[in-house]
Amino acid sequence: MSIHFASMTVSEITDRSHKLMQEGTALALLANALTEFEEATGRKLFVSEADQGTQYVGSPAPVDARLQSDHGLTLPEVAAKLDTPAEAAPVQRPIKNATPANARPVPPKPTPAQDPIKKPAARPFAAPAAAKAQTTDRPWGALSLPERAIVKHLEKLAPAFTPAEDLTIAELLIGGNKIEAVALQLEVQASLALARWKAFLCAEVLGEDGKPSMDGQQRLLAALRYRKDTTA
Predict the structure, then answer these.
(1) What is the DSSP string of 126-165?
(2) What pLDDT, on the 0 to 100 scale, is given for residue 132?
(3) Residue 54 forms beta bridges with which residues?
(4) Residue 54 in 3-state DSSP?
(5) Beta carbons of 154 and 219 less than 8 angstroms apart
């Protein structure tokens, strides 16, 4: 099978192109006229070939039974011949979700039980820390600083003897009595009385040689008398 193309001259091609341009212009004018017709009448007009006539949308009966051949009619004449309004399109109503009569109600989905939110317990109002009681220094009277230090040292000793017995031990030994006489008067063993005496000997009582000095002994007696007088 072979295809043969007829040869055309330049003039024939030019004429053909002019005709096509004229047909395009005519079709554009026709399209504009159809648009104006639809806007004026609300109907759509379909134009077929020249030997098939014109058909109209919306006529209740065939157009051929009402109109004769409309060859040669202009668009205004065609519009004048239309006297039947276009059929209105049926209104579509939304379909309601009808529930069948025998349909069982769907039980609601159980929601997980939610534990009540526990609020943190209110903390009791914290009272400001009470200020530590500032103990005022005791009434030392006429005691000197070394004598006061001896009093504090004596208060740290074990309460094996009373303040009065401590004063008796110091007075007898400083007065030149032997330890046996002291133990006999207090009715205790001599070793206990001697150990108590040695416990009195703090730095404020001893001298540079490590033995009780004269001033140290007087300070010790003053501290022991103070304890005896102030102890309940």
Answers:
(1) PPPPPPPP-PPPP--TT--HHHHHHHHHHHTS-TTS-HHH
(2) 42
(3) 47
(4) strand
(5) no
